[in-house]
Amino acid sequence: MKKHFFSAILAVVLASTFAQVGWTETIYVNNTHEIAMRSGPSVQNRVVRMLPPASPVELLDTKNDWSRIRLPEGSGKVREGYVLTRFLSMVSPDELQQKGLEQENTMLKEMVETLEREKAEFTKTQKELQEKIAGLQSSYENLKTASSNYLKFKQEFDATQAALAAAQTNYQNLLQENENLRLSQKIKWFAAGAAVLLSGWALGLVTGRLQRKRRSTYRI
To answer: FRET label pair with 130: which of 95, 149, 191, 192, CA 20 to 30 Å apart?
Structure first.
């Protein structure tokens, strides 16, 4: 439907233009393949010639979807026929190619600008990531150092705690030995005192006997 609509518009424009000026205009075949030039404005009419792409032809008249064209054949001879209007263009292939190149160039420029923006954003993102990585690396090094110090301090604490426990055990042992020594000394002093008492008692007993013996001797 769209093709027929645009073909009809082109046909009306071309017909109006050439009806007003009264002379023919060179136009071009714009299809990418050969098109058929027929003896009449219908696909039922026979094909009189095949026209290659970009072929220049003279436009004589346009009606509905068909245009009547004239094709020079050399030696002053010409051939007339009909082609579908949608396969014709008033722009030369060079102009079409130039427009295509301009459009492609514009598109490439837009792509380059887009790539430049993306490159700038990527560079910015890469820089931010590098800064984050550097920060993480620094944090990791600090954490590793802190972990090493923690392990070192923990080992020293465990060793000190073990030494303290051993010292407390030795202290308790010394207290127990001191207590045992004091008890042993008390027992020795008690035994010595008891021996002194026994010795005094025995000495007193012997002395008493001697005195009584002497008294009995004097009486005789």
So the answer is: 149
